[in-house]
Amino acid sequence: MRTFSCSPRLPLLRAPAATYRTVKKSREAPLVRACQRDSQKSYPEESRRAVLLGASAVASSLASFSEFSSASAESVGGEFASPNALAILNREGEISHTTEEWQQILTKQQYRVLREEGTELPFSSPLNKEKRKGTFKCAGCGSPLFASSAKYDSGTGWPSFVQPLPGSVTEVPDFSIFFMPRTEVRCARCQGHLGHVFDDGPPPTNLRYCMNGVALQFEPAVGEA
């Protein structure tokens, strides 16, 4: 699993120790009791071991997810409450608009992706086949995000890049899918949702910035048709 990193870097989200202990106890106790009852039955040794290991993994995952949720709720006090972190949490960037203003600026599909974290259908964007030299910019604010030289064909159906332009994106933990933590990629300037980054890309970064084409605009280089 890829270690989350932020650019700009976000403070580490930690729940207070007392909160974690409470969550862990409440989530783990029923599972432990269930395992104890199962272990007293006349199952083969391997079956009992599988039950215990499975329950332990579930309890650990529940505790980790609850720890993050508690940290998000405990947004008052501590390093998590820094102005920059709260602004990113609320999707407030250098360029900020009200919901009504964004709906007027963006198309319905752009709004669904950039402001509501939607995902376009694979192979639906013409930018997936864009091979000209130029720059890919944010469809929400026009900020340059990716150079065409960083683009490659990942075969996934979404425009993919090995790296963004320096300082152009913000990467934040995404726990929207239970048991599947990911790293969300946003435009650093307007905090619009672009896509996600994965660690299965080609050299030299071994990263795959999987972007929604509708969240991007392509500007050809001078001399490109």
TrEMBL record:
The keyword Ribonucleoprotein does not apply. Catalyzes the reduction of methionine sulfoxide (MetSO) to methionine in proteins. Plays a protective role against oxidative stress by restoring activity to proteins that have been inactivated by methionine oxidation. MSRB family specifically reduces the MetSO R-enantiomer. Belongs to the MsrB Met sulfoxide reductase family. InterPro entries: Met_Sox_Rdtase_MsrB, Met_Sox_Rdtase_MsrB_dom, Mss4-like_sf. It comes from the Eukaryota. The keyword Metal-binding applies. GO terms for biological process: protein repair; response to oxidative stress. It is an enzyme of class 1 (oxidoreductase). GO terms for cellular component: cytoplasm. This is Peptide-methionine (R)-S-oxide reductase. GO terms for molecular function: metal ion binding; peptide-methionine (R)-S-oxide reductase activity. Keywords: Metal-binding, Oxidoreductase, Zinc. The gene is MSRB.
